[in-house]
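Final report, Chapter 2: Outcomes

The project's central promise was a pipeline that accepts a single protein chain and returns its three-dimensional structure in a standardized token representation, suitable for archiving and comparison. That pipeline is now operational. To close this chapter, we reproduce one record exactly as it appears in the project archive, with the input sequence first and the structure output second.
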Amino acid sequence: MAELVQQLVNGLTLGSIYALIALGYTMVYGIIQLINFAHGDILMVGAYIAFFAVTVLKVGVVAALLLAVALCALLGVVIERIAYKPLRQAPRLAALITAIGVSLFLENGGLWLLGTDFRSFPPGTISNRTFALLGGAVRFTSMQLLILGVTVLIMIILQYIVHYTRVGKAMRAVAYDKEAAALMGINVDSVVSVTFALGSAFAAVAGVLWGLYYNTLHPLMGLMPGLKAFVAAVIGGIGLIPGAMAGGFFLGIVEALVSGYGSSELRDPVVFILLILVLLFRPAGLLGKDTVEKV
């Protein structure tokens, strides 16, 4: 029983980060039907911005996080304007290939600029206490609580933005019908930019939390979390914000259970087997609904 609880705690921590990244995937897909494969690499950029803010500028971790969020939101907007906006009316395959190209550009640019060395946040960047439950059989840290708390807070803020603000209503209108939204006076370009900014900001938060939790930074660190967050978004129902959240937590718990009761080497194969099964038997995702596309 204690082992199961321990793995659930570990799974919720990992799933929280996946959910944060998956939100960016699902928001962009919901608005312009683009799978932004560069999203995971923005996670890496956010982690490095926070790292250099802490080590070079000597600021606190909160200020470093806010700086990473601001710069990554700006980076997301720049990427959208330069790489994706000119392809808005192009076939989806062209935009998809461009997204892969942007991802490779960020990864190789990171390797060229930062080198291949692993970096770590200095000791004491953030305090990390350990707590025990069930007589010490279950342990969790304040860092894990922080990750879960930040994720839940961001999800609540996103739900408020989407359902109760003008920009959120505009996002929903554009997701439903871009042409009709434009006829009603909504600036579609601005809505798309805001969507990229929000998604990139969430990726930055995920990157900083990932860097602090595992305390290892590398220019390719966003590759696997980005792919798994994409899988999480598909499993939950890509295009659906609740689906991204549920998919992220589900995938994190599955990984933790596989590692705890099986082998850590089986984590990645199980994740992609799950993706194949979902695409075969429920392509709309666990929370999605099958729709008929008009031709």
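Archive annotation: The beta strands are 130-133, 138-141.
This record, like all others produced under the grant, will remain available to the consortium after the project formally closes.
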